Amino acid sequence: MTDKTLHVLFLCTHNSARSILAEAILNHIGGGRFKAYSAGSSPRDNQQPNPLGLQVLQHAGISTEGLYSKSWDEFALPDAPRMDLVITVCDNAAGEVCPYWPGQPATAHWGYPDPSAGDGTDAEKLEAFRQTLLAFKRRLDLLISLPTAKLEKTLLQNTARDLAKE
């Protein structure tokens, strides 16, 4: 796996906030070793990434180009990129029955509260998105700093699950 780009899929229910943040951050910091994607188990019709999430990403200097909400069904198709790691980032998606992923990727759950939930002001929700971005960045910095041996398939699942404790 030394020369291989690791494909990571982040899953949430609607694919509008947490999974979009994780995809953008990992693609920004992954240095070519990682290629991130995101999807939802049940995105709403015409679902779009949350504007506050996009604003926080842009403010952090992270590209939002190409980000869009999509169903996880796209990644179960025969011509879809083959995932090495699938990470659920919300508790709802973690409890759902996932599609069959070609190649049987490693899996982990990194639960984060929904920054768009609640009745707070836009400023409070913006801060919740910023805090979620920072939490993802800390965990993803740890992931990308792992030595290649820790990213081998047999160790990847345990390593990713251990990072959930960070």
Sum this structure up briefly.
By secondary structure, the chain is of the alpha/beta class. It has one domain (6-161): Rossmann fold (3-Layer(aba) Sandwich). It has helices at 18-29, 51-59, 91-94, 122-144, 153-163, and strands spanning 6-12, 34-40, 85-88, 106-109.
Layout of strands and helices, then pairs:
Blueprint: E1 6-12, H1 18-29, E2 34-40, H2 51-59, E3 85-88, H3 91-94, E4 106-109, H4 122-144, H5 153-163
Overall shape: globular
Look at the structure and give the CATH class.
Alpha Beta
Domains (count)? 1
> What's the main sheet like?
4 strands, parallel
Question: How much beta, percentage-wise?
Answer: 5-15%
Return the string of H and E elements.
EHEHEHEHH
Binned, the helix content reads 25-40%
Number of helices: 5
CATH superfamily: Response regulator
Sheet with the most strands: spatial strand order: 2-1-3-4
| Mean pLDDT, all residues | 87
Query: In terms of per-residue confidence, which ranges show pLDDT below 50 for 5 or more consecutive residues?
Result: none
What is the CA-CA span between the terminal residues? Answer: 25 Å
Say what the CATH topology is.
Rossmann fold
- Counting DSSP E segments of at least 2 residues, the number of strands comes to 4
Structural class: alpha/beta
C-alpha Rg (nearest Å): 15 Å
Q: What would you say the CATH architecture is?
A: 3-Layer(aba) Sandwich
